[in-house]
Amino acid sequence: MTLRMTEPPASVLAALRLTGAPRPLAGGQGESFRVGNAVLKPVDNTEEAEWCADVFAGLTSSTEFRVPRPYRADDGNHVVAGWAAFEFVEGQEGPAGAWATLIAAGRAFHRALRHLPRPDLLDRRQHPWAVADRIAWGEVSSVALAHTDGLLATLQELQRPVDAPSQLVHGDLTGNVLLQPGQPPAVIDFSPYWRPVGYAEAIIVADGLLYHHAEPELIDNVLPGRHGLQMLVRALIFRLATSAIFEGPGKTIPQEELARFARVIHLVEERMHADHHFDT
């Protein structure tokens, strides 16, 4: 992925009524800038960015979570020349081991989304994360991917049907909940999917086990039983397929990355094999 370090132009700041010099921010894939009390990021999909901003504008922060308010230009649009701006919110990025807080914030956030209908724009997305999500749910099969040393096939063999209602969920909460003492967790950078809430939580668990040194007990605490394990299988397919798409067809995912997935898959298999009714 190519990172763009170009700062937002003066015309964008003027349209959003922002003043001051843009300052680069850590995170946001190296593309975020702060201007006054606003954070600006370039957007790749204007339709999705406008819709996400409208969702956040309609949410009310509570004692359980808060969201940054989007800025709107005089013409009513949230996106100006490929840039969107949200209110700057204080908080520390990353889970930092606060898994219970992160899961609770996600559940409160998802309760606030339950009334919203499924947007048609989800069907039009073709970015790697959207394609990987469809792979995880068996909705596409013929996608050119990097080699995964058989791990993707192993995960797909572990899949069983699940029966759970879908709704709007944030599919990338792990690094997008900011923690600040004395304030509710802040949910940022909405990545919308129409899936069960348990799938969004399973992505958090997968990220924790893969990249944040979480203990295996996180699986049992957040995703108990066969249903939870099936959500975790899909979350692992989602993350592995995303890596394989970015790596590119004909190549192989780095061994260090494959070793992470192999270790977590083993944890899943252990729990499945302990369930004598797994194949029923």
Large-scale geometry: globular
The ordered string of helix (H) and strand (E) elements is: HEEEHEEHHHHEEEEHHHH
Distance between the termini: 42 Å
Per CATH, the superfamily of the largest domain is: Aminoglycoside phosphotransferase (APH), C-terminal lobe
CATH class of the largest domain: Alpha Beta
Sheet-strand content, in percent, reads 5-15%
- Classify the fold: give the CATH topology of the largest domain: Aminoglycoside 3'-phosphotransferase, Chain: A, domain 2
What CATH architecture label of the largest domain applies?
Answer: Alpha-Beta Complex
Our count of helices gives 10
Largest sheet: 5 strands, antiparallel
- Tell me the quaternary state: single chain
Number of strands: 9
